[in-house]
Write a structure and sequence with these properties.
- It is built from 24 helices and 22 strands.
- About 50% of the residues lie in helices and about 15% in strands.
- With about 700 residues, it is α/β, with parallel strands linked by helices.
- Helix 1 packs parallel to helix 6, helix 3 packs parallel to helix 4 and helix 12 runs antiparallel to helix 13.
- Strand 5, helix 4 and strand 6 form a beta-alpha-beta unit.
């Protein structure tokens, strides 16, 4: 099963995925902190804004479950671009009616006070609902409290810890009496698993507030967790919003309620935040952090210190002839413009202009002379021109480098993403090919089953049925019972070798009344209540609306007590029923040709065929039989047939050999039962001799 997680997925972790979607292939869009893990079937990449590329993902993966995390799951989050992303995903869901789309959003739409956020969240919910109604998409809205994380940079608590560490001051926008609504990711994982396990008809679900905590309680917990003195303030707007009362739907439908309070996780979150923030520690790290946060001050200090240095060099080297060919002032301007851009280039030019004016003043050049003599302007013009040109080139190169770097990063991400998709596609191709060729429920397999069951002799059909059902169902506890005309007894026809000795040769139908009603409706009965003496499954095969055969599956593993397995049994029994009805109709059509006229005695060639089939059944250990020779020369065949008609079972077979000897095949009779049958026949004047069934060819010889 393939799952897509999109939107505000910064809270998603590998643990969350494993708990929510076990044994699923999960694609996560938009979580930069989550790394792809092929071993755990997790693919993570940035959210793709290009609708064409997003369409390619939907064409590559056949998503059955989609979850969109709203930006309002983050406290004080903003819904920038969310409606467009929702529209794109819902638009692509139209082509697959099997997708179950879940929109995880905040509780703003059920606040008792209407605000701008309430209107935006309601609009997003309406978009999801309308798309579901128009295009028959399985959409559901789950309104949950805010999520929280110590490492997601957009999260409320991450910003709170950062503010407390940097300034020792925390400002809450709400009042102290305002309730807080937070949900643990572990609780959410459990809920998502249950929601998808039992999708239901409810279109909107609301997660209740079970903890009744407010910002005043949060302040106490923060003060206990963060050492040092904190200045915590509130911006009381005078309005306290509340969510609607618990409607009990989630508790009743899924047996779920929030179990973990955010206060239990705050100490652990703070330690996790400190561990992350302290990974760069020490004096050099502090210096780097200070420089990165105060780049403007650093650049100004560099400008001033560089100006002082070059002024010193200019005065110190002024007396050397070789330095008279170099204008150090111009060099400084070029350096600053090339390193830091046009603003610093112009600033350096202004400083060096002042330095040059001071130098002219030392040479007793009047300021008016500098101003009115146009030739004196040339150095100043070149200073500013050099600063501007170098700064512009620096700025342009920086922008080009940033653009190329960003483009390269995007291309690399697309490359790796396409590589992942290509590999996944190849893997799926191999898997699907293997399933098509070898799956027990593929079309090729069904054709093979139909071909094997295309036989006209009932005994041979029973043999093939056992083989097919054991192979397809991967079960070796299958028994076939044929019912008598009164539907009181079931006679074993064939059985899996593993349990043949354990199962009775005859059963009373009245002992399985709990299953009969279901079987008469054409359904497969499943032993859900674990009734003693009942098999795991019982399926029926009908003829003209009446049961003629029962299929017992005595034992089934826990993995086989599923709806899929139940449907598989039903399909197989349907194929067997079609073949059995065809075989019985054929037998009735050729009855006059196979039996002696006016009797139930098979002619020699047809009797030998049946005898060989019974011998094969016995050799394969899926059944047993006994062969009796009827010796009574004083009776005609018609008289013997009349006596045996009411003394043998419907699945016993009477036949004649080439020399006119009469034989009786007793189906599913073992050594313990055989004397009882012989005694009953002899009481009716029929003398019997047991034939060694290890070599049925002796019958033909005799």
């Amino acid at each position: 099963m393939e799952v897509l997680l999109a939107g505000n997925t910064g809270y998603v972790t590998e643990t969350f995925i494993e708990e929510s979607f076990p044994e699923c292939d999960v694609v996560v869009l938009g979580n930069e902190m989550l790394k792809s893990n092929r071993k755990k079937n997790i693919l993570s990449c940035p959210f793709i804004k290009d609708e064409k590329e997003l369409k390619e993902i939907f064409e590559t993966y056949e998503f059955e479950r989609i979850i969109y995390f709203s930006n309002y799951l983050t406290m004080h989050g903003r819904m920038t671009g969310e409606l467009e992303q929702l529209r794109q995903i819902l638009q692509l869901c139209k082509k697959n009616k099997e997708i179950m789309m879940l929109y995880l959003t905040g509780q703003e739409s059920i606040y008792n006070i209407t605000s701008g956020k309430t209107l935006l969240v309601s609009a997003a919910e309406n978009v999801v609902m309308e798309y579901g109604n128009m295009y028959q998409i399985n959409t559901k809205i789950l309104r949950i409290p805010h999520l929280y994380s110590a490492v997601y940079t957009q999260d409320f608590f991450y910003k709170l810890f950062t503010e407390a560490e940097e300034s020792g001051k925390i400002v809450f926008e709400e009042s102290p009496e305002q309730n807080i609504y937070f949900l643990c990711m572990d609780d959410l994982a459990e809920l998502l698993y249950k929601v998808y396990d039992n999708w239901g008809k409810e279109r909107c679900l609301n997660v209740p507030d079970c903890f009744r905590q407010n910002f005043s309680d949060l302040e106490k917990e923060i003060r206990k967790t963060i050492p040092g003195k904190l200045d915590i303030r509130y911006q009381n707007s005078g309005q306290i919003y509340k969510v609607q009362p618990d409607d009990q739907i989630i508790r009743q439908e899924y047996g779920w309620f929030p179990k973990i309070s955010v206060f239990e996780d705050i100490p652990g979150m703070y330690q996790e935040y400190k561990k992350l923030s302290d990974s760069d520690s020490g004096h050099f790290a502090n210096i780097r952090n200070w420089i990165s946060k105060n780049t403007l001050v650093v650049h100004i200090l560099e400008l001033i210190s560089g100006f002082i240095l070059f002024e010193f060099l200019n005065r110190y080297t002024g007396t050397y002839a070789q330095f008279k060919m170099i204008d150090l002032r111009l060099v400084f301007i070029v350096f600053m413009g090339s390193l830091y851009g046009i603003n610093y280039g112009i600033s350096a030019a202004a400083l060096e202009t002042c330095s040059l004016i001071a130098a002219y003043r030392q040479e007793n050049v009047n300021i008016y002379t500098l101003f009115y003599e146009a030739s004196n302007w040339i150095p100043f013009i070149f200073y500013f021109a050099a600063g501007a040109v170098c700064g512009y080139i620096r700025l342009k190169n920086k922008e080009d480098i940033e653009f190329v770097t960003k483009e390269n990063r995007l291309i690399k991400e697309k490359f790796f993403f396409m590589q992942e998709m290509y590999q996944e596609t190849l893997q799926d191709k191999r898997q699907y090919k293997k399933q098509i060729l070898g799956s027990r429920d593929s079309f090729g397999k069904i054709f093979d089953i139909t071909r094997k069951l295309d036989v006209i002799q009932p005994q041979k059909l029973f043999m093939e049925t056992i083989r097919v059902m054991e192979d397809v169902l991967e079960n070796h506890t299958i028994v076939l019972y044929s019912l008598d005309s009164w539907k009181r007894f079931g006679r074993m026809e064939v059985s899996s070798p593993e349990i043949r000795r354990k199962m009775p040769n005859s059963i009373r139908i009245e002992e399985y009344q709990n299953a009969v009603e279901t079987l008469e409706k054409g359904e497969v009965w499943r032993n859900r209540e674990l009734l003693a003496g009942y098999p795991a499954y019982i399926a029926g095969i009908k003829r003209n609306g009446e049961l003629v055969m029962l299929v017992f599956i005595q034992d089934a593993a826990s993995s086989q007590m599923t709806l899929y397995y139940l449907n598989l049994i039903k399909i197989l029994c349907g194929l067997v029923e079609v073949s059995l009805l065809r075989a019985l109709e054929y037998q009735e059509a050729v009855r006059d040709r196979e039996y002696l006229e006016g009797t139930h005695i098979l002619k020699t060639e047809y009797f030998m065929e049946r005898l060989k089939l019974f011998h094969s059944i016995k050799e394969q250990k899926i059944g047993s039989y006994a062969l009796l020779q009827i010796e009574n020369p004083e009776m005609t065949l018609e008289e013997t047939d009349r006596i045996l008609k009411n003394k043998i079972r419907e699945n016993d077979i009477l036949g004649i050999s080439e020399d006119g000897q009469l034989y009786l095949i007793l189906s599913q009779v073992d050594d313990a039962m055989l004397p009882i049958v012989i005694e009953r026949l002899e009481k009716n004047g029929l003398h019997c001799r047991v034939i060694d069934t290890r070599n049925e060819s002796r019958v033909a010889e005799e």
